[in-house]
Amino acid sequence: MMASDEPTAEISCTVNGQPVRAHVPVRQSLVDFVRHGLGLTGSHVGCEHGVCGACHAVVDGRVVRGCLMLAVQVDGRTVTTIETDQPTAQMRALQDAFFERAALQCGFCTPGMILQASELLTRTAAPTRAEIRDALSGNYCRCTGYHAIVDAVETAAARLRDKAAA
Amino acid sequence: MKPPRFDYLRPQTLAEALELLDRHGGDAAILAGGQSLMPMLNLRVAQPAVLIDINAVPELDRIGRSGDRLSLGGRARHNDVFRSAEVAQAAPLLTVALEHVAHEAIRNRGTLGGSLALADPAAELPACMVCLDAEIVAASVKGERRIPAGAFFQGLYTTTLEPNEILARVDVPAAGTDWRFGFDEVARRRGDFAMAGVAVAVREESKAVAECRISLLGVEMSPRRMEAVEMCLLDAPLGTAANIVAAQSALRDTLEPIEGSEIPPEYRIQIARELLARVIRAMAAPVSGKRTH
To answer: N or C: which end of chain A has fewer CB within 10 A?
Structure first.
């Protein structure tokens, strides 16, 4: 339900490869839009003030806080969420490595972690553990701690390098 | 945790943005990266009637060098400045300091102009601009106004920017090869707000310090030149032990640390003194290598 005096806007964008047109309240965040407007609930709403990283989405190739960008701001842009059926090689390798290393428990932070780590591996093929920790410093995990997550990113990076060398 | 209602405007040119800002003035907020404004809206500590989104305005994110001046657009994203080869060459202090600015996703959106206009006392970029002797260019419907960084920051979240002005760009003097820079800070967590940080710029002539500029972040309400401290380092090789001790002592006498936060003022001074010595020693005897942990 929208109040009749709620300022709204028409937007058109591409989400996970599909064209989307929508009528959104201008104050709606990107993460609320993909969750409630599009049913893509893989981006999670955690702190809603840019601290936890659970709401990450990719806009025009860059990872952003979904709670700090407005839905109206993705008008004309390309959005990718964890649900994409065209994941990058980095995303696939990370998903496998997270699963194998049990680098998650409740899974709330995992989509944000995968997207952020994917951006790192796209830029840096062989990150050090310190670089992995720096890249993920804006993503909170409250269950497993970070050791297994860093392990999984290292493993994914090594496999991607092997594949590139093969 | 949802923002209050606002009207949303997305000008397509700088002229249009400036007209809108002139019309709405104090009722409007400029939406650039949104990495501070959006949390403030979500927490409802800011309730502007109108958001003027400048993300569609062309050229505002330009990074370019002409001669001895590096120009950085107000909407230049932190990560674009951080990874710019031109910046690394002409203003390496910014490259080093930006490593400490927030986290990847925040740096992907957050902007230089936003950080400077907000003037958070713990922010790295305001202190760096003071240390670099940069000029801030404010634009309004009346034209442009140039403000030295040292006069721009007026106190806690306070600058000389008028309600009808946009921080259009920052002009930084490109560093000559005789300049060296140092930066370090202490924060509880990588990317978190600094409890104290130090930026140092030094020009040497015949192996002695001829010019020196020092500014701090996270210690005082807003950044300023630490002239009494700078004096201590002049006319001797950088890293001279007695001068470092004198500079540390001058720093203690000069600082007016933030009161009333959870971090005791004495502790901020202690960190600042230690960082000052560390930064100067590192500049005097640079060692390369990656952090390993």
So the answer is: N
